[in-house]
Structure formats: structure tokens, C-alpha cells
Amino acid sequence: MSYETVIGLEIHAQLRTQTKIFCGCSTEFGATPNSQVCPVCLGLPGALPVLNRHAVDLAIKAALALGCEIQDLSIFARKNYFYPDLPKGYQISQYEQPLALKGLVRFDVSGHSRSVGITRVHMEEDAGKSLHEGFSSSEFCTYLDFNRSGVPLVEIVTEPEMRSSDEAAAFFTWLRDMLVWLGVNDGNMEEGSLRCDANVSIRPVGQSSLGTKVEVKNINSFRYLQKALNYEVDRQIDVVDKGEAIQQETRLWDSAGSRTLSMRSKEEAHDYRYFPEPDLPPLVTDTERVAAVRATMPELPDARRLRFIKEYGIPEYDAGVLTQTVELADYFEETVAAGVSGKGASNWIMGELLRIIKENNVEIGSVSLKPNALAGLIALIEKGVISSSTAKDVFGKMYESNQPASEIVEREGLAQIGDKESLHKIVCKTIDANADAVTQYQAGKHVALGFLIGQVMKASQGKANPKLVNELLKEELGKNF
């Protein structure tokens, strides 16, 4: 029997705020355990939460980018369950009345466009962290770090409309890039600021009703998401083919063993007993506030990509690379604005600039070589002052010294010989000194032209303009043919 896979994702994204969702404690990652806590995020008696306005604006921004309908009124609730790193014994979240509903997004999977519905976007607080390794008594004890407790989150829930692990990973990748682009999330999955739960089921091809779903929890990489889904689909098919029933349960991804492991069954699942948070009033998001947040949003990646293709005449591939981050896209546009061609700027940014950024492990925003400086180098190439090969050497010196390209070229005498009369003399001498190559060229062996160009470049110490050399050689050889 053939089966169809049905996948829906729940993504938890920490919001990029400096303070927590209900108190003024820092959200900085990596601080000394339990050093960024207060009575509110520790859930001490009498401590009252106060909602972080900036966190709300970031959540609205994410929901708008996902095409969701922002609700006029949303309610925070207490989600009751016991876990050691949940100090209050409940998590403040949104349940029956979330921040936003009914979105729709499009993304690419292997060159094909796909669309997936967004069920809801709601706000909540993160839990603390249980640590089970790295301590002398880890075998007997669980250590708790509450620094993460109270960090603001949005949970993004999709419709069960993805049909393969590739689609799920592509959507998760698209979503990460979007949230980072908006400044909503830092995208650092290794630090846990972006995590994913996957709901997966199978059903016979042609069947419309959904199969029994299994939830795979806390996946923090695109690769692990694909592996977890592939394993789980194979496991479910094997169970059904044996004539057994799929158990609705929550499973964990074991990256070391490359498998999913049962965490709890439906019967063991928590009854969360949601009820409205009595210490927080309803969240009102009127049209004026939504409009104000919308006005702060940057041009979204897909729109900017299409504009780059149309406005600057660059290929679709180039536009895709240049719109990976807001900072890179801005760098490109500032370079072009300084007076060079779109393709020239694209080639140098995707080539030498990204290469040196990768080698030095830095971000585009911290690069000392500014767009107008790079444009100065590209302009020298486009005007024929220096060759592309010379420009690479100049680029390295610019990056190290922060000196303008024009100063380096002038100081080191790197300018091309672009004077037609001077080059004509070198071309004629080269033809006279290489009669055999001339004869081969005239006999139809045009590879000899490359040899003659090389000889002219050698005679000019690499300073001759290759394009002009090519033209002059063909002109002189044509006279003698």
C-alpha cells in the first residue's frame, strides 16, 4: 500500500528583546546560571507580571509577515503543568484568543513554489532550562538554570499541509530567514532561540481523513527535522504494515541514535487546564497600533528579490544570494548607488567580499570595507583602469588597510595601459617577434591568438588592457592575412 505523509509544524521563536516578557530581567544568552532572575520570572508570591510592549510589537510584525489577521483582543492564560524548570507551576501563554489567526505563506522547495496555511500565532513565556550533563553529580541530580524563564516567545502553528520532510525543512528554513530579516528572532538554533515541534501522520494515498498524529518535540536544526520526520514516517509505515495501530503520543528526537523515542502517550499527556491569567488585562491591538508596526517593517525578502532582478538587471540566483539578510541587501544597494553597475556590484559582493567574510568569520555589518569603497574599486574595473586580476590584489590591500582603491593603484603603478598608441607599438613588436604564431593564426588555428595576447601582456608587465589588446591584435593580424 502507498502512503501519504501529513506534516504540520509548531515553531517556538524567542523574540529579540533586551528584557523578558513580564519583567525587566536581561535576555542575554550565556550569562552565569540564575544571574538574570527576579521574583516575577521565578514566580515568587506577590510578584506581578507587566507585559513587554516591544515584545508585542515584534509578535505583531511576525504575524503580519505571515499574512495573519491580527485580533483586536487577545487573552493571556495560565497553562498549568508541572516541570522542574517551570517555577510557577504554570506557563503564561495564549490559548482560546491568540494574537493572530489565518495566515498564508509561499516558499520554494527545490525550485517549486509551495504554500502553507498558518493556523495561529500566539505569545507566551519560555521555561527555564534543565541541565543533565557536565556536573560532578549529573548522574544523580538535575541542575536548573532559570535565566531563560520568562524570555518572550511567539509560537507559530501551521496547518497540516506539508507532504514531505523536504517541504518541512524548506518551510522552517524560509521562516527562520524571514524572522531574522524582520529582526524578530536572532535565528541561533544552537542556543535554542528557535525550536520546532513536528506533528506527523500517514494515511493511504487518496484518503482525505487524517491519520493518527505523533508529535516530535524540540528539534533545533533543519537537518535534524528532516531526519526525525523521515525516521518517524518509516516507523509509522512499518507499524501499519504489521497490522498494528499508531499510538497518539509525544516523541523526542535522539540525535545520537538517529531515532525518535517515546516520551509520553496520549493517556499520559498533561491536562493543561487553561484559564485566563488574572494578573494581566486583555491585550488590545487596535488598527492604529497595527498600522504603526506595519510602517516599521522592511521590504520583505521576496519583494526585494524581485525588485533587484527588475531594477538592477541581475540574475535570479544573484538576487537570491543578496537578499539572504537585510544587511547584505543594503550593502549591495549602497554599492550600486555609489555609481557602479548592478552586475558588477553583485559579482564582487558574492565573490571576494563574501569569501573574505567567511574566512574571517565576521558579519557583513562589521566589515570595515564600506560600500562606497568597494564601488570605487569596481568603477576602476568598469572604466578599464585596472584588470579584474589586478583588482583582486587591490581588494585584499583595501580590506587590510582601509585605503581607497585609487590610492593603492596610483602608489603601486597598477593602472592598465589603456593608451591605444602605446599598446599598438607593443602589439606590433609582439607580432614581429612571433612569426610562427602569426602563421598558425592565419592558418585558422585561433588558439594562437591567446598565445599572442599572453605575450603582449608579458611585455607590458601585465598592465595592458586585455580587451584593447585583443582588438588591436585582431586588427593587425587581419591586415597581414
Describe what you observe in this structure.
The protein has 481 residues and is an alpha+beta fold. Helix content is 40%, strand content 20%. It contains 15 helices and 16 strands. The strands form four sheets. Strands 2-6-7-10-1-11-12-13-14 form a nine-stranded mixed beta sheet. A hairpin with a 2-residue loop joins strand 6 and strand 7. The radius of gyration is 30 Å and the shape is elongated. The mean pLDDT is 91.
Characteristic key phrases:
alpha+beta; nine-stranded mixed β-sheet; three-stranded antiparallel β-sheet; 40% helix
Number of helices: 15
Question: Count of DSSP E strands?
Answer: 16
**Mean pLDDT across every amino acid position:** 91
The rounded Rg comes to 30 Å
| Helical content class | 40-55%
Structural category is: alpha+beta
What proportion strand? 15-25%
> How do the strands of the widest beta sheet line up side by side?
2-6-7-10-1-11-12-13-14
* Amino- and carboxy-terminal Cα gap: 74 Å
Spans where pLDDT lies below 50 across 5 or more residues: none
Query: Can you tell me the overall shape?
Result: elongated
Largest beta-sheet characterization: 9 strands, mixed
Could you write a compact summary of the structure shown?
With 481 residues, the chain is an alpha+beta fold. The protein has 15 helices and 16 strands.
Element layout with pairings:
Elements: E1 3-14, H1 53-65, E2 69-70, E3 73-74, E4 76-80, E5 90-94, E6 100-109, E7 112-125, E8 129-131, E9 143-145, E10 152-158, H2 165-182, E11 194-204, E12 214-219, H3 222-241, E13 249-254, E14 259-265, E15 275-276, E16 283-284, H4 287-295, H5 301-312, H6 316-322, H7 326-337, H8 342-360, H9 371-382, H10 388-401, H11 405-412, H12 420-433, H13 435-442, H14 447-459, H15 466-479
Parallel strand pairs: 12-13
Antiparallel strand pairs: 1-10, 1-11, 2-6, 3-16, 4-5, 4-15, 6-7, 7-10, 8-9, 11-12, 13-14
